[in-house]
């Protein structure tokens, strides 16, 4: 038997408004849990946004001078490996 569909229609406007305001999906997920006692996954939120006509976007990292300096510091000064740097 299939799992019943999670009812998010009552929070649809809340989810869309927060998402379009730049709130990350994991934060929206936490707020739904804390405020509405709704347990859902980021995957489900992403799928629902698509169903509602909102296409989730992947955020690209903007490479700034500050980011370059931080990476150089961790690689050349501290000597972190690639795996350590990605944690």
From TrEMBL:
Pfam families hit by this protein:
Clr5
Which InterPro entries does the entry mention? Clr5_dom (IPR025676)
Enumerate the spans annotated as Clr5 domain: 7-55
Protein name as catalogued: Clr5 domain-containing protein
């Amino acid at each position: 038997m299939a799992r019943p569909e999670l009812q998010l229609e009552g929070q649809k406007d809340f989810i869309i408004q927060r998402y379009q305001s730049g709130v990350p999906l994991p934060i929206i997920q936490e707020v739904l849990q804390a405020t509405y006692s709704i347990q859902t996954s980021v995957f489900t939120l992403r799928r629902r946004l698509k169903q509602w006509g909102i296409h989730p976007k992947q955020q690209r990292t903007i490479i700034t001078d500050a980011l370059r300096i931080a990476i150089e510091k961790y690689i050349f000064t501290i000597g972190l490996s690639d795996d350590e740097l990605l944690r």
